[in-house]
Amino acid sequence: MKKLTTLLIFLLIVTVNAQTKTTYTYAIKGKDTLQLDVYQPENSVTTATLPTLLWMHGGGFGGGARDDEREQALAEYAANNGFVGISISYRLMRKGEPTGFGCNCPKEEKLSTFKAAAEDYMDAALFVINNAKKLNINTNKIIAGGSSAGAEGILNAVYMREYFIENLEKYKTVQFAGVFSLAGAIVNANYITKENAIPTVLFHGTDDNLVPFGAASHHYCDVDKPGYLVLEGSSIIAEKLRELETSYYFYVKKGGKHEMAGVPLYDLDNVFNFFKQTVLDDKTIQIKKINNK
């Protein structure tokens, strides 16, 4: 009940300032028509270019939607705080699959799912960049964001582009200025280097039962299961960024599980202030916040 009340209050707050929402189709892949919703400040100056949050929802690659309540609230918050908020759909490769995305889903299919998500995300980013003038987008200030499956998709797209994307030349204009990951993980954190490391926000629970907080198998599958695949979660990513002297904001929930994949309405002020300082003002900040409650 408390969480519902918090969400209703937040939705009331973000709707005080008006935004405009426009939907575009960015790709058609087989039977999937992939769309994105663009939330603009209603009174934004048409000649101005704005930083952007490009968001990928969660749902285990089998559910979720770009216009879910919290995704919409996040995009509206962005639009009310000097950003363009964009929430995308993508191919839900595990929807209706009997093995789902857990321990019975073969490792090869998991990697193929990650690849498709990274490709879709890059296609959405390319659409945004190609239409930057119409959307009032500053192409040098795009923040890649996602939750759970979406966080895995964006982390792999940003930091493992060379591994998952075949036609790199196609996406040469796509560059990201920041990362916002909720309960996400990467296939191999060694792909994060001094050359590609960017300011990153990470939220994760230490006892996440699906996506590892540190280095562990996805869904904690046993080594003899088809879906055994080691991923490296937020604690590994944050340590890598610390070593590289790159900005990060790491929110740790002691004992927290996968509920940390939910949009943190309670801490968005700190998240966006972090991006304003690091992405817009080019400051270096490293913060680790531990919630013991």
Automatic annotation (TrEMBL):
Keywords: Hydrolase, Signal
Name used for this protein in its record: Lipase
Residues annotated as signal peptide: 1-18
Domain BD-FAE-like stretches: 36-157
A Gene Ontology molecular function term of the record: hydrolase activity
Gene3D superfamilies reported for this sequence: alpha/beta hydrolase
InterPro entries in the cross-refs: AB_hydrolase_fold, BD-FAE-like_dom, GDXG_lipolytic_enzyme
One Pfam family of this chain: BD-FAE
Transmembrane segments: none
